[in-house]
Amino acid sequence: MTYYYNQLPYYLLVLFFFLSTKADDLLDQYVKHVELVNKFRDYDHSLDHHKFNSEKSSKRLRTKRESDIVWTHSVALDSEGFIVLRWQPRHQEILFRIEAKTLGYIGLGFSPNGGMEGADIVIGWVDDKDHKAMLLDCHGVPKSQGSAPVRDIIDNYTLMKGEQNGTHTILEFRRVLDTCDVNDYVLSGDTVRIIWALHKNDPRSETDMVYHEDRRGVQSVHLLGPPPLPKQSSDFTRHWDVELKNFKIPNNMDTVYWCKVFKAPTLNVKHHITGFEPIIGKNHSNMVHHMIMHECELPGNYNSAIWEKYANEDGQLCYNNMPLAWEQCLTPLVAWAIGSKGENFPNHVGLPLASKKNSYFMLEVHFDNPQMKSISDTSGLRLFYSNKLRENEGGILITGVAPSTLHFIPPFQREYKTAGYCSLGCTKEMFPKEGVNVVSVMLHSHLAGRKLKLRHIRGGRELPPLAEDEHYDFNYQQSRALSQDTTILPGDGLITECTYSTEGRNRPTLGGYSTREEMCLAFVLHYPRTELAGCYSIPPVRYFFENLGVKEFYGKNMSQVEAALLEGKMETEYSPATITQKPFESRPGDEMSPEANLRAIMALKNAKEYSIEGETSDQSVFEKLIIKEPSEFRNKTFMSHLQNIPYNETILTKKMEEYFYNGLHMTFCRKRDDSLAIKETIENLPRFEKYQNKENIQCSYKSKRAYTSSASMSKVLQFSNLVFSIIFSIMIRRKLT
Known about the structure:
Structural class: alpha+beta
Number of strands: 40
CATH topology of the domain at 60-222: Immunoglobulin-like
Helix content: 10-25%
Largest sheet: 7 strands, antiparallel
Radius of gyration: 31 Å
């Protein structure tokens, strides 16, 4: 009876309500109450408590929902394929299916950073004795509160099915995208880090979890978006493997860019590339950061013998004293980055292959070797191609910030934004009247990147972003297929926005090619193919120095410093020039034309901390610049000055962000033949009305229910029956008298 006394306030409230209600209304409500109770008694209590009897309940479930769900997405969460996650996104929810090689419990979580703390976790199993399935909604807590997940007060997961055979456990469940529960992770189009764990045994009870030991892992995925396209398998499809075999990574370089020329298969007619995937050899080193396949734009009178020779050689360091002829291999064809599974193009888009009798391509592979290990690696790309040409011929456009030291990110920042601008003038000059249609986008930054976005500007208004990721993962750079082709018209602008976090760094981070430096780029697959290959921006040189408080250097006025930087010749009274060419997959300027020679962008590659040949930051160009004015910085190198700026003053760093983001940009519009389409210009980022997303995910209060045991629910029913019986008796007596 203690339970009923605890519910006395509720009883009195209900009693008051019914005593103030007409007898006829009360009788109707009592009938409805009895019907509700009967429905609950007929319902399988174990389902509401997330217990599923696969043998007895499967038939009943088939009458309420389709048994054959089409799982549109899937991923193996481990390298052996012991745990596979399948899912189907719907309007405001996602259906999940886990298949795991275990007869014990399965843990699956959505984590903001790949760890358990703060993760939204479900734990499920099928009981070995009664074959009932269990699913618990939990969340991770700080280690100071224990290592085991804690049960949520509100249960927002619905178990649909649970079964196991002799080797595997299978669980199916659903959840709305946003439950408005502080302990649940909001599922969106951003990258989500899925953590998982397996155990060979079931928990002893719901509150007594056994530790999963080493059977755990993390895998990033894109949960939302169109289903991935399958490989085209037909008699018309072949593949071409482009790989470095047993490449010996040097142990004296922390970053290596290696280039090798390949001759395309001998084809009598043009073919279309329909997709690609990475080749991960048995001795894959896990040091491959990215790979880019470049098309060589050769003139009609090229020397075929010398190109045959290049194709038969092992290759060499990219852009470092490499043959001048290789400068013609700068048009990106396909791009792969760490974590990507490759891409299969839509059926109406193909990339050209072997439009000439003899075609050559250059594979660029970036190896990241921070521990200076000596190791062999076999990696490359497998290109799928067909002679059955597709309706549209596509191409890759690279846009963003041209990698250089002028890309500046201060330390101690929780969030700091930079932007690369593809100007209205460039798209107006290069795109056809009907525009180009974007199929997919790969966003790219390095270790400090946290949020990336490709913004789309038209007529003073911002349109929905072409691609966006609020939870960017450096180790998962999978291209994002658009749900529908999106048109960029002539005169549209593009802004590649990158948000970085440098809270754990005490030195400025500069742009460059090493993973310790930063990039901000977007690789845009589009059709029809145009002559435009790259569209970038950087801060103008004078503007860069003045915004960082420097007015004058020794030995040269600011105009001379600017010209020297852009022409790649830096000499001071204190140190001679050292010119070292640096790699970049698609250079922002045109070193071949007289116009570009006036303001050679090659110099930008010298103004950075980059170690392809063992350089240190002390050998950077910025160390060669000695400040004369203002007097408080006099006789310091510019690099030393950068180290001494008080970056922990928020007002100061926010002004820096504003100046470099919305201020002046030097823009470059580079064609596939490595010439500039229009002269580089200095312009402000255009003003525009910002895009407001009016289709935010809505919270679902329907799914929110406190978990409760069958015994507790039985007590509730007993109490409600008692209340209604008393009220019913009272009202009958009132009516008779």
